[in-house]
Amino acid sequence: MLDNVPILSLITFAPLVGSLIVLLLPGQRSQWLRITAIAFTVIPLALTLWLFAAYEPSVGGAAYTEHETWLTIPLNKELLQGFESSQLRFDYHLTVDGISMPLVILTGIVSTMAALATVHIRKRWKTFYVLFLLLLTGIYGVFLSRDLVLFFIFFEVTLIPMFFLIGIWGYYGREKAATRFLVYNGLGSAAMLLSFLLLIATLGLSATDSQVIFSGNYDVLLANLTDPQAMANLTADQAGAAEFLLNDNMRWGAFVLLMIAFGIKVPIFPFHTWMLRVHTEAPPSIVMIHSGILLKMGVYGLIRFGAFLFPEQLHDWSTIIAILGVINILYGAIIACVQREFKLVLAYSSISHMGIVLLGIASLEEVGLQGAIYQSVSHGLISALLFLIVGSLYERTQTTQLDELGGLAKSMPFMSGILLVGGLASLGLPGLSGFVGEFLSFLGLFGSMKWITAIGVLGVLFAAIYVLRSILSITYGRTPEAFENMKDARFIEALPMIALAALIVLLGVYPSILTDLMQNGFNGLLEQLHTRVGG
Amino acid sequence: MTMLASYLTLAAVLFCVGLYGVLTKRNAIVVLLCIELMLNAVNLNLIAFSKYGVTPSLTGQIFSLFTMTVAAAEAAVGMAVLIVWYRNRATVNVDEFDELRG
Amino acid sequence: MSTSFAEYAWLVPVFPLAAFAILTAMGKGARKTGPWIGIIGTLASLVLSLCIAFERMTDNADDYSKSIEWLQVGSLKLSAGFEVTNLTSLMLVVVTLVSFLVNVYSQGYMRDDDRISTFFAYVALFTSSMLGLVLSDNLLTFYIFWELVGVCSFLLVGFWYHKPEAKAAAKKAFIVTRIGDLGLLIALLLLFWYMPDHALDFTTIHNVFSTPGGVISVGITTLIALLIFVGAVGKSGQFPLHTWLPDAMEGPTPISALIHAATMVAAGVFLVARTFPIFEASDAAMTTVAVIGAFTAIFAASIGLAQNDIKRILAYSTVSQLGYMMLALGVGSVSAAMFHLFTHAFFKALLFLGAGSVIHGAHTQDIREMGGLGKTMKITAWTFGIGALALSGIPPFAGFWSKDAILAAALDKNGILFAVGAIAAFFTALYMARLYFLVFAGKPKQDGHAHESPSVMTVPLIVLAILSVVAGFVDTPFKGWLGEWLTGEAPEHHGSGIVMVVSVAVGLLGIYIGWLVYVKGTVRRDAVSSRAPALVRTLERKYYIDELYDLLIVKPLRSFGKALQAFDDYIVDGVVRLAGYSTSALGRLNSRLQSGQVQTYALTALIGIVILALAIAGRRFW
Questions:
Q1: Alpha-carbon distance C350 to C465, whole Å?
Q2: Are C and B neighbours with ≥3 CB pairs closer than 8 A?
């Protein structure tokens, strides 16, 4: 039923349209602006759910592909004998498959919830919503695009709005946090660009009868990788053609650059400090997007480019990645145990949770990889929920210092209850979504690296410590007088809280809803691993 | 010494005198005059080559006319700037012209 | 075969779950109807469990199990299902019965609490999870419910959230048991990768490990067994992870009866019983279980001698009795362990509910401030007495038979284990005698406002008292069927004569000494504390275990966290700041060159040109 609808483009560009409409609205009407913005987050969400309903995991993403040539640049040089001309070609290529589908759904849900949470924004609504919606277009584009250049553009589109969203609407240290965000991610982008250029100039090679084409098309890259013979044939009797082949050193170079680029985003220790600032300084609704979705772009990039394009390199590095994952888990968790500020607890816990994702990726097993995606989605929902509550909490108490809070269960039983649910999900309680992701990741890695996994499992214990320590000191204990008469969540706040909590429970009780989507997502990679690395 | 060589030597001396003045003089007017000196050294070269060069032609002389015109215009603009500057700062000392300091 | 009740066993946990859902949806408003919803939910489960149990007793039916696919990843399938065996049906009855009685009791005990409906919702959720745990047919589902009961326990311990002690106790309960859960989780991962076909269901585990010279090496088997045992140690409050259980007494008393005496803490024992073939395949694991069990039994009992809080005494008693069960498992007798679990559930629930009734009447938990309550609280005193006798192992009460079975099994294996068990039994009798006489005998220390509890609280006491009397007869050495029914093997009864004499003797001796000290007064109360104050002090401080953990684990960990924090702030972030600083320093340095002196620029340019010219000229002559 979706055959004739360019649904992927609609999903991607609906927020952009919304952004333009917001531009046309008068800036003082905060209510109009808010409703428009929410509407244009709901539209892609609805489309995503429609896509979800129609998605057949067995067919994979093939059914939903939009592929047009976007721009071609003729190259004024005869590169290979026997071909009349050569050109550089960039495509407009969107596809959804088992790996991006869960993340697209996550984006739809979290962005809508974040839009609902923007009630705390108190100034310059118009600019805020324009940037907010622009950011969403970037995120959807990242998860859907299958052309390196297009991917890069969308990736950058997420950076700039984020910079302003942190820098204008954040808390006291907002400008520093924004700069730090931009510098780190800019470095990551530079590494990514370099790696992409390398890939386009080598693996991007394909030929028609008379033409040599260099393109950033992901499918071309993948095909050249899986069948290196075809490329070798093409360039076999050409003098100097070897420069178009990706030799081992270049492969390693490109791989390491990609690891750095996406490692900063995840973030992998020691590239994590920027993310702490963003967590503490950005406005809560933006942190929901940031922690809930943007970090997952790193995971997605690691899998989509790191794993799929460089299975051998990843295989060689799997121990290193697993160790980095364990460091992330324990380092984040132990530091989270001694924080005095709730937002920092959550920030360090994010580092810890992303470590589990790394373990899943390092396993190079289907269970682990699915676990990594599952954990990403689950962490996205959980941290969105927790920061949603932080936003509402801060609005009332004007503080998120743990020593200053306490006993809120008395005045705000509903929010305390939801906070507890979020915390329990975060510490990996079975029956809530956090457990499934953790369990699958551990299960996947345990097959190949028992000791590393066993050490990583310790993180679960620290998670219990920091979650209970912080949440109990917020909700339990004596209620300070100042907090006694505070109001519980309003309807507009309660709605996203209930929705997110319900999703967390749903994913915990019935994980098949997500794992079925990923059923065939990793087939290509696993095949590669078996044939090339030798299983 | 041929005629050309002596003209060129004179031009070189003139240019060096001008350059020395540009680099060392404090008074902006003197600096401006020294620039004129350098320009004139170039003019001298042009004319010398147009007369005694390998392929003598009028181009060099015409070119030197252009240069003089441009030099005059430049001197006018330069003087104007200096006058404005003097009105604001009451000085024409180039050491104090450091608005471009980083 | 026609449809049996066993096929509907999945409904047993569903009823309380539905009760939980309804109570949560109703919110705070349901103060009157809330308790009834909880009671009805557990009653439905109780009826169904009894039907299942009777069916199995009469028909001797086959085990029934059914599972659905929970999660499929590639070729790996993780399933969720339930299984009805004689063991699980026994546990179902125990859990639903105690839960039902506690529900009824709580209606009286919690009557004045603002959040009574929340309380009943938590209890319903706990009951549901516990029943799910009992019914699980594989280790993964078991683990899921295992964690859920843990979280319910946490919620209920911290039910009075405004009390700082309750907050600390809840946190401690969750974190300490989580240490054990880690062991279980790793065991689960190990099993998953070593079992043929990644099977995790108990039937396959049973088959694989029962085969001699099986597919899994002894080393791995021992490792798995020990890790599972770590889980059991955490949940069942065995040494060295026992510290949370006494603290958990900060929760409402009915919760102590339900969760921390009868059901959840016994889950560790149940887990070991359920995975018993793994333990049997490894001698080292069996020895560990037996030694830890025996040590915990005597260790906790000795602490119980010197405590003054009525609930804490009972808590240490619970730890000690769970040690007995572990001892039974360690010496290879599942039936004795389950038998003791069964009887203990009744008499310990009775004791806790009785203690609740006492607290309700006397408004204090310190036994030194009580006395003479036997006169005003007749029903409580009588039923409590029955429970105390059952715990002390005096025939014909239930505890005697089950403890006797354990001691007999221990003697069969190892004399030392038996001796330790017997001494622990003596301690048990002594601290119960002390507790009972201090609370119920003597003169009232208060102004006589202690009163008997309402019938909604005393009726459950009476029911449990009756059960504490009769429950032992299901498996006496003379005519027993429980052991055979549970394990399918004919029970072995041997050496019971000596064991019986010894156990009755130590029990009576303990009570007699207690009577001499606390009623008759022939021995002064401070007879021991005046002669060996250090010993008594050590017992009162629970061997300083909490302090030790604080010193050895909590404090170093906190300092380590602080150190890491500093590392993060100054080294990791410092490198970044340094990079940023050095970049801008370089920028400042370069901007110094930009003096704005046009003449300097021109001079520099001139020098540059000269150098270039020289270089070009020099190249000529090179």
A1: 7
A2: yes
